Amino acid sequence: MLRLEPRAQPSMAMSLASPLIALALTAVIAALLFVALGKDPVRGLSMFFFEPLNGLRPVTEVLLKATPLVLCALGLAVCYRSNVWNIGAEGQLLLGAIAGGGMALWLAESGFIGPRGAYAPLVLAAGVLGGMLWAGLTALLRDRFNASEILVSLMLVYVAQQLLNYLVFGPWKDPRGFNFPQTPTFDASTWLLPIARGMRLHWGAVVALVAIVVFWIFLFRSWRGYQLQVGGLAPAAARYAGFSSRQALWTALLISGGMAGLAGAMEAAGPLRQLTPHVSTGYGFTAIIVAFVGRLHPLGILLAGILLSMLLIGGELAQSRIGLPNALTGVFQGLLLFLLLACDTLIAHRVRWQGRRALSGRTVQ
Amino acid sequence: MLRLELENISKQYPAVKANDRVSLRVQPGEIHAVLGENGAGKSTLMKIIYGAVRPDEGTMRFNGQPVQVASPAAARALGISMVYQHFSLFDTLTAAENVWLGLDRSQSLAEVSRRIGEVASVYGLDVDPQRPVHTLSVGERQRVEIVRALLTNPQLLILDEPTSVLTPQAVDRLFVTLRQLAAGGCSILYISHKLDEIRALCHHCTVLRGGRVTGEVDPTQETNASLSRLMIGAEPPPLQHRPAAPGEVALEVRGLTLASDTPFGTALDDISLQLRRGEIVGIAGVSGNGQQELMAALSGEDVRADADAVRLFGAPVGRAGPRARREQGLHFVPEERLGRGAVPTMSLAHNTLLTRGEALGRAGWLRTGAMRAQAAALIERFKVKAGGPQAPARSLSGGNLQKFIVGREIDARPRVLVVSQPTWGVDVGAASQIRAELLALRDAGCAVLVVSEELEELFELSDRLHVIARGRLSPSVPVAQATVEQIGLWMSGLWDAGPAATETAAAAP
Question: What is the complex's ipTM, to 2 decimals?
Answer without folding.
Answer: 0.83
